[in-house]
Amino acid sequence: MTRLIAIAALVVIAFLLIRYRTNEKLQKWVVIGLVSGFIVYTASLMLTELMR
Fold this sequence. Notes:
Elements: H1 2-19, H2 24-51
């Protein structure tokens, strides 16, 4: 369920960035933030599974 919410949020943010043509710096930082958040989520998921 969490994955579906995360995917939907990414699609909405990508749509808004393209729709309103925000500047490149903002787009770059949003993409960096989303990718790093996804990496942290994946790492925490792996750690919790390994601890079980």
